[in-house]
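Ticket closed. Logging final result for Acrosin-like.
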Amino acid sequence: MALLGLLVLLALAGPVGGTWDTCRGTCGLRPLDFDHSSVSANYDHSDGDYAALGSSDVTSLDLDSPGVPSGAWPGIVSVQATLENGTWHMCSGALISPQWVLTVAQCFFRSGDTSAWKVLIGATDLAQPGPEAQRRHIGKVLKHQDYSNDLPGNNIALVELDQPVECSDYIQLACVPDSSLAVSELKTCYVAGWRATPENGQCPPGAGDKLGTTGTRPGRPRAEAKAGDIGGPLVCKDNTGDYFWLVGLTSWGKGCAGDKRPGVFTATQHFHNWIQTQMGTVPPKTEPPPPKPPTPTIEIQPPAPELEPEPEPEPEPEPEPQPQPVPIPVPIPEPEQIPEPEEEEEEEEEEEPEPTPPPPKFITVSFPKAILLRFFRNLQEFVEFLRDKLD
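Final structure:
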């Protein structure tokens, strides 16, 4: 539990402001620091991705000295090219991840094949790097997609090393601030780099292959940056903690810059998201794809069972017109008059009644039912008519 508590405290003690910690869990430290309490600076980042720092009243820590102590700036690196006439320091940079270096794109203008280039980390004297220094080959260079050598903006690049670097007291990661850090309120800033001497040799003594550091006092709008220092880190001490922020990279400087030749820096805070995206720390922001149109679907019905064709009904033969039956008049017998009974005569012989003539024979004819009904109905009406007449 005690070890867990110590790890939590170490994590909370790291710098805040949007950095990534991959080497010993922190960044921005200077384990072999020297006294910098008497130097302060004024940083102006009002120009977007560029910033100016400096003054005529510059406090130099190394112009009259052989250099700064080893490990004083453990995040700085030297990008070197091996040519036919030797190995040359091309530009400076800052180690921001065990396998990534942040520098300026101008360093690789017309660089050609960089597979033979190397990066030296953890050295202060390029002529005598020392056993604490490490060398790595360049895996690839990612220049900002909007950088142009003819234009001043977007002068920034990432260098991926072929192998990760092991951190030590002489090699530490630099902290890149995000937008949450108020960079303009930082009070103590330094510029570090290996200074190249112009051809006329007019720069102050101490310029050459030794690491140099320059600090500035408050209230001065600009700072010096020597030619050949491109990519050199501009770091500012946090106002509340004992760690440093990588706020700028030396973009360009002409000769031995002074009062009328300010150094120009690329503001790293402006490119924080670009750096993380290129390193793969966060996925790039992309617009959501438009919704796909619905895929038309076709419902395939199972084949209906084959039905045997129903036999067509044979047409019913139309009945041949039959002649309408002609009603046959039926003779109606006239009613016989019943004679009045005569007085009985003396034993007259009774006359035998005449035999009733047999009824006339009728011919049986088949008639439709409706016709027969109509006929008998008419017959009934006729009989009733006669009865009425007789009465």
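The chain has three helices and 14 strands. No further action required.
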